[in-house]
Design goal:
The chain has helices at about 20-25, 35-40, 55-70, 95-100, 115-130, 155, 215-240, 255-265, 275-280, 285-295; strands spanning about 5-15, 20, 45, 80, 110, 135-145, 160-175, 180-190, 200, 215, 250, 305-315, 315-325. It is of the alpha/beta class. The strands form 4 sheets. The protein has a 5-stranded mixed beta sheet, with helices on both faces. A 4-stranded mixed beta sheet has the order 8-13-12-11. Strands 2-3 form a two-stranded antiparallel ribbon. Helix 3 crosses helix 4 and helix 7 crosses helix 8 (about 255-265). The longest helix is centred in the C-terminal third of the chain and has 23 residues, at about 215-240. The two termini are about 20 Å apart. The relative contact order is 0.19.
Length: about 325
Amino acid sequence: MSVVRSAVTGVGAYLPEGVVTNADLAKVVDTSDAWIQERTGIKERRRAAPDQPTSDLATEAARRALAAAGRRADEVDLIVVATTTPDLTFPATAAIVQRKLGAGVGPAFDVQAVCSGFVYALSVADGFVARGLARCALVIGAEEMTRLMDWSDRGTCVLFGDGAGAFVLEPVEGEGTTDDRGLLGFALRCDGTKTDLLYVDGGPSTTGSVGHLRMAGNQVFRHAIVNIAEAIEAACAAAGVQVSDVDWFVPHQANQRIISGVGERLGLDEDKVITTVAWHANTSAASIPLALDTAVQDGRIKRGDLVLLEAMGGGLTWGACAIRM
């Protein structure tokens, strides 16, 4: 039986030029390169220029993804942007990206699930593409997390960076098996009782300000290992595959200790795990497409590979997705 799935036909990424090393941070907060690397695995992160909004990063990543897919901007009929750091309260950053790309009129909106945003956005776009409501969709994760930092808080300001990544999704017919190219299975979760573990202390209807990121790091770490592993197993079950079948694991790049902990819990070979946290830090919703693009560009991830994505963020939200590239 013929089945239509949403296939990833192009990936692209963009990092702003500004590099902030651990040594740079040690000049403004009580920390050190050794302290940061030991606890997080991070060596450096990117920081957007003051006049460079999130939509600029998103637009450039989208252009590169479209080029990889061999598509033009005027063919795009859906844009979903996952972001916690929009240009404006409204309109959606996706609408601004649509204008900057020169894409035609069509649905364009943002998804807010913090670090889990890209997985959530993929599931939303899949609902359009696999059902014939879009033929060429852009799913973008774009963040400027440095805008949310309290630079006196060494527990958070060392963790985050800026960047953007994008996928082009197009409908592809298959036979309804796990060998089909496309998005095979999802698992999405949220536990709103744990909002106080990771949040920003500002917003339009409360403080009227942007606010700063606040995190109970130890508690987030404990929840991450268990919750992410459960979602991965659920996504694999939904896809009809085993974790052992996975060719590449592309986790949210939050912290090397979390990435390693999840991999160990699931029995994943560390050689199959894509990690870019050392150079990108935690770019929230942008981290998965940034990491996947890195592995595509260097030749590790190839057409036909089974790839597993996962993320966890404020909400607490978390989720996973299995993709046949």
